[in-house]
Amino acid sequence: MLRISKLTKRYGGDQPVLKELDLGVSERSMVAIIGASGAGKSTLLRCINRLVEPTSGSIQLNDTELTGLRGRELRHARRRIGMIFQGFNLVDRLTVMENVLSGRLGYVNFWRALTRRFPQDDIDHAFYLMERAGIAHYANKRADELSGGERQRVGVVRALMQRPEILLADEPTASLDPKTSEQVMALLRNLSDELSLPVLINIHNVHEACEFTERIVGMRHGRIVFDGKPGELTRAAQDEIYAGAPADEREAAKEHAEGAVRAAAQ
User: Fold this and answer.
1) Running DSSP on this structure, what letter comes out for residue 16?
2) Would you list the domain boundaries of the chain?
3) Would you say the pTM of this structure is higher than 0.85?
4) Is CATH 3.40.50.2000 the right assignment for the domain spanning 2-264?
5) Is the pLDDT of residue 84 over 80?
6) Gyration radius from the chain CA atoms
7) Separate counts of helices (H) and strands (E) for the chain
């Protein structure tokens, strides 16, 4: 269970990016965060795993208060938070297996990490997850030889190798074509169900948010202005979420949402 209370993030003397935000994410749930550019979606995810330092507020993951951790305690807590990035963040010269096993670096000693000699249990689990993601046959292939969709699947498996208590995904499909995007979203949903793992996704595509997640959180100017099921995302709710956004973003969100409604009716 993730519990966020009165989370605020301010850069210097500027207006806060996050404004006393409250949010809870339960086990075995897939939650999408939507909103215009600059709404604070990425900052929220990066505050959770402390890539960005919150200004004030509380972030609690199960029995651990994350905001007060430092040094070794923080490193250990980060092992419990898987992160999937828009840009994949793979090491191109390494193989798929080596990239996947890097998800265990926080759990092995220095010499095992340096020589990449991981326990057999880790290797077996890596093969299992790669099979589930459809990339096991690429185990010995260099990461820079893969397509975008294949690279993102490696990123998903690497994050899951941490055996995390929550999975964060920051625009995981933004650089993928529509078909591949849907495949990656379906993979995340299936793995969330299979592993009873909460997944929190920052996503621009409202259609995919409605189709693949069970809860949508809409943000505007650092605040949550909508929190409900996909079927509750009315036109009025969309207008409130995207109020003041550039016209192209508003139209794209509207088109995505209408596509989701049409798909649900079929």
Assistant:
1) P
2) 2-264
3) yes
4) no
5) yes
6) 19
7) 10, 10
